[in-house]
Design a protein that fits this description.
Elements: H1 12-18, H2 24-30, E1 53-57, H3 63-75, E2 79-80, H4 93-100, E3 105-112, E4 116-123, E5 129-138, H5 140-143, E6 153-159, H6 167-180, E7 190-202, E8 205-215, E9 220-223, E10 227-236, E11 244-247, H7 254-281, H8 300-306
Parallel strand pairs: 1-2, 1-3, 6-7
Antiparallel strand pairs: 3-4, 4-5, 5-10, 7-8, 8-9, 8-10, 10-11
Length: 307
C-alpha cells in the first residue's frame, strides 16, 4: 500500500444519522406523565352485571296482550325476545329456552279462552317463580298520554310501604327489582334517569304506572304508560315448578267470577218473575157504586123475599 494513499473515515455526524431512530410510540410509553406519579390508575368501567331477561308469550294471545308485552320490552333494554311458545310444550321448557338465550330471568305471558291474561315472573333456573292475573290493561297506543322519555334510559323504581310489611310481598319486590332495573353499564342503556316506574300494593293487587320526570327540582311527573294491574295467585319455590311457597287466599279465578255473575243475574230474573206472577194472581174486585141503587127496579121476587 503506497504511503501517499489516505483512507477516508466516516465522520461522527454521518454515523449518528445512520443509527435507527426510536419510534415515537415507544418514547411515549417510556415517558412518565408529570403530576401523576404515586396516584391510583383510573379504572375502566365495564359491564359486570350481565342480567338478561327473556320476554315472550305463548301462542294464542290477543293483539292487546301483545302490545302490552312490546311496551314492556321498550322499557327494558336488557330484554330479549323469542318466538311464541307452542301449547304442546310444557312450561318447564322455558328454562331450556332461557339457557340457550343466556337469560337468567323471564317474563312469560299466556292467555286462556281469549279473555284472561296471565303473567309469569321466574328466576331461571333455580327459582322462585310467581304467577299473576293481569287486569285493567291499557297500552301506550291506547292511552296516548302526553308524557315521553328516552328509550332505554335508566328508571327509578318506587315501591310503597306495603311491600315491606309482608314476607311474600318482599319477595315479589325483589323479583320486580331484578326484572325491571337496568343493569349498570349495559351497552344498550343510556346514563339518564328520566322516568319512574311505580309499583303500588293496594286492595290486594299490584298497580303499575310509568311516569316521566319533567322537572327534577320540583319533582313534577307526567304519566307515559302503560297501565296494568297484577293479582298474585301463587309463588313457587322453583322455576315453573316446585313447592307452593305462598297461595293467595283472596284470589278468585276468572271462571269463578263469571259464574258468580251469572248466578246473581239468574237470581234477579227469578225475583222479577215471581213478582210479576204475584201481580197476575191477585183478582181485581170492582168497587160498588152508591148511585147504582137509584136506577134499580124492584122485581116481584124481591118483594116476596122482603115480605
Amino acid at each position: 500500500m503506497p504511503d501517499d494513499l489516505v483512507v477516508a473515515q466516516p465522520s461522527e455526524e454521518s454515523v449518528s444519522s445512520k443509527k435507527r431512530k426510536r419510534p415515537k410510540s415507544a418514547e411515549k410509553k417510556g415517558k412518565k406523565k408529570k403530576g401523576l406519579e404515586g396516584s391510583n390508575p383510573i379504572k375502566k368501567m365495564t359491564w359486570t352485571n350481565k342480567q338478561r331477561a327473556l320476554v315472550f308469550a305463548a301462542r294464542g294471545i290477543t293483539f292487546h296482550a301483545r302490545h302490552l308485552m312490546n311496551d314492556l320490552k321498550v322499557l327494558m333494554p336488557h330484554a330479549k325476545s323469542d318466538s311464541k311458545l307452542e301449547r304442546k310444550e310444557g312450561l318447564y321448557a322455558i328454562n331450556e329456552i332461557c339457557e340457550m338465550k343466556n337469560c337468567n330471568m323471564t317474563m312469560f305471558f299466556e292467555m286462556r279462552k281469549k279473555l284472561d291474561l296471565f303473567m309469569w315472573l321466574s328466576m331461571v333456573p333455580n327459582g322462585p317463580s310467581a304467577r299473576f292475573l293481569v287486569q285493567n290493561v291499557h297500552t301506550m297506543d291506547e292511552l296516548r298520554l302526553t308524557g315521553n322519555h328516552l328509550k332505554s334510559s335508566r328508571p327509578l323504581l318506587t315501591f310503597n310501604k306495603a311491600f315491606d310489611e309482608q314476607p311474600h310481598l318482599a319477595l315479589i319486590k325483589e323479583m320486580l327489582k331484578q326484572m325491571f332495573a337496568t343493569p349498570n353499564m349495559h351497552p344498550k342503556s343510556k346514563p339518564f334517569y328520566d322516568h319512574v316506574l311505580g309499583f303500588t300494593y293496594l286492595d290486594g293487587r299490584i298497580w303499575f304506572r310509568n311516569f316521566q320526570i319533567t322537572d327534577q327540582t320540583e319533582g313534577s311527573l307526567v304519566e307515559v304508560g302503560p297501565r296494568f294491574c297484577l293479582w298474585l295467585i301463587k309463588i313457587f319455590s322453583g322455576s315453573f315448578s316446585g313447592n307452593v311457597i305462598y297461595e293467595n287466599p283472596n284470589y278468585k279465578s276468572p271462571n269463578q267470577y263469571r259464574t258468580e255473575l251469572k248466578i246473581a243475574a239468574s237470581h234477579r230474573y227469578k225475583a222479577k218473575a215471581e213478582k210479576n206472577a204475584k201481580k197476575a194472581a191477585v183478582e181485581i174486585v170492582p168497587k160498588e157504586d152508591e148511585l147504582d141503587e137509584i136506577f134499580h127496579t124492584i122485581t116481584q121476587d124481591e118483594l116476596k123475599q122482603a115480605g
